[in-house]
Amino acid sequence: MQNRIIFHIDMNSFFASCEVANHPELVGKPVVVGGASRRSVVLAATYEARKFGIHSGMPMYQALRRCPHLVIQSSHFQLYRDYSKRLMKLLQTYEVPIEQASIDEAYVDFTAKQVELGNIETFAKTLQQRIYDELGLPNSIGISYNKFLAKMASDMKKPMGITVIRRKDIPTKIWPLEIGEMFGVGKKSAAKLRTLGIKTIGDFAQIDAKKLEIAFSDMTISQQAYARGEDSRIVDGERHKAQSIGHSITFESDKDNEDELLEVMERLLDQVLARMEKQDQKAKTIQITIRNSYFKTQNRSYTLHEYSNNKKEIWEVVSRLFFNAWDGEPLRLIGVALTQFIAKEEATEQMNLFYQPEGIEQIEKRNKVLHKLQNKFGDETITTARKLKGRKKDDTSRD
Description:
Layout: E1 6-11, H1 14-22, E2 31-33, E3 44-45, H2 47-50, H3 60-66, E4 71-73, H4 77-92, E5 98-102, E6 105-109, H5 114-117, H6 120-135, E7 139-144, H7 147-154, E8 162-164, H8 170-174, H9 187-195, H10 201-206, H11 209-215, H12 221-227, E9 244-255, H13 258-278, E10 281-292, E11 297-308, H14 311-325, E12 331-343, H15 357-377, H16 385-398
Parallel strand pairs: 2-4, 7-8
Antiparallel strand pairs: 1-6, 1-7, 2-3, 5-6, 9-12, 10-11, 10-12
Helix pairs in contact: 1-4, 13-14, 13-15
């Protein structure tokens, strides 16, 4: 049986690298992404900044203490999405299966091209350099015969590293690693595994599966199989598509005004619904996220009985979830997301005693026209009374 050739391609310090690529004058300088205020945190740091001990999640004032000449760039998420799209388009030129794992990483299955590619490490260096030359993004590539090992390999050498893990390398390259370094094993699981005497990935691979089942009701056999180098998952190009559609916003200063928070939440929902409309889909699960000034994050979700794209129905759930999660404390971040999608033509309409079928159809037509107008002329072309009320308050405050 022919061994698969799976690449895991991971951008190094993606947000910061995008900023440097967009501003070539920053090349070689210590750069971080985040707000300039003392209460901000570092979202990403270039490797030049990391030499000073700066890392993601560090308070900005601490980063500035370590490196007074640090360059702080505000976050530009649309820029990062654009670079992500350009990366995927570049990979698509090879005409092989691609699975986007996140905004800055992808699995690529080069199995069908191995004869054409020749020496796989030489090709990897060529691909790595092409990404850097065309996008300006440093990247690391992991190569193996399955997805798990390719992902583990890409983390081993950064920045601009290339690591190959063959079957014979597992005992020397994978098993000696501390259990907390295994992809998919979180801090809590790692701590619990250590109580069983499992300190390394090799320990995990070789322990009796029955002991794991007793201690971990949620510990799947597949995770232990990964530790042994077994992973039959395919590179699935459909996997990343529309798993969720969401928008969130981090405020410059914390907000606790109820009307203002609801106005922003509704605006986020409009953006989410417009994206879902473009994909001609309906959703079943609604999620909201809030985070206060102490970085305590609350998530709430609700699954509808039937798939829906009806704003009134979804907004009622969003607002209910919001008030269920919010305790009145000032908020730093709020977000809305929809998941569990189905194509419109496949969806079964929920019959409501208070609405005739043509009423539901009229609501859908109205929503479709609304989203088209917003896409063409901007989000504020047509607005709701709540948003208008909030805008009047803003206008009054400026007088």
